[in-house]
Every structure is written in structure tokens, then in C-alpha cells.
Amino acid sequence: MNKSELVEKLAGKKNLTYKKSEEIVNLIFDSMTEALINCDRIEIRGFGSFVVKDYRDYMGRNPKTGEVIHVKPKKLPFFKVGKELRERVNKQH
Q1: 70 contact partners, CB below 8 Å, separation of at least 6
Q2: N or C, which end of the chain has less CB nearby within 10 Å?
Q3: pLDDT digits (tens, 9 = 90+) for 24-60
Q4: Is 27 left (phi over 0), alpha (psi -120 to 50) or beta?
Q5: At what angle do helices 18-37 and 3-14 cross, to 10 degrees?
């Protein structure tokens, strides 16, 4: 499912216009993004949680040339699936 499909599903289920549904989805995503930028943890019970992990700088290799390069420190968002979602997905198989 992509963002536009999510917007369409919300509009259909809650009898909203596409534009209003898009505003709601964008508000949720923008709020989540802002929380992650501030290194806050996001937890949605029954679904999962999002956290930001910090990585130090390190020496890596360019896979094309084999040249050693310096990789700058970075932060990456991670999602950890919740128990309820994991169980629901596994029931389907």
C-alpha cells in the first residue's frame, strides 16, 4: 500500500473527500517526522514503534572502485514491529 492508496481508503471508509483525507494523512506523517527529527520515540500500541539510531563515522569502501572512503556519522529511523501486528501477519500464513 502506498500513500495515495491509504488516502483513498481513509476517504472511502470515513466518507471524506480525497483532499480532506490527504490532509489528515499528511498531518500524521508530518507529526511523526517531526517527532523523529527531535529524536522522540513513537509508539503505536498493537502496531509497533519508531526510534532513531545514531551511527558513528567509519571508514568504508566504494563498491565500484574499492576506494576507501570516510562515511560521516548519521541518524537512521528504525521500525520495530509490535507483538499484535506480528501475530496477525503470521496468522495469515
Answers
A1: 57, 58, 59, 60
A2: C
A3: 999 999 999 999 999 999 999 999 999 999 999 999 9
A4: alpha
A5: 130
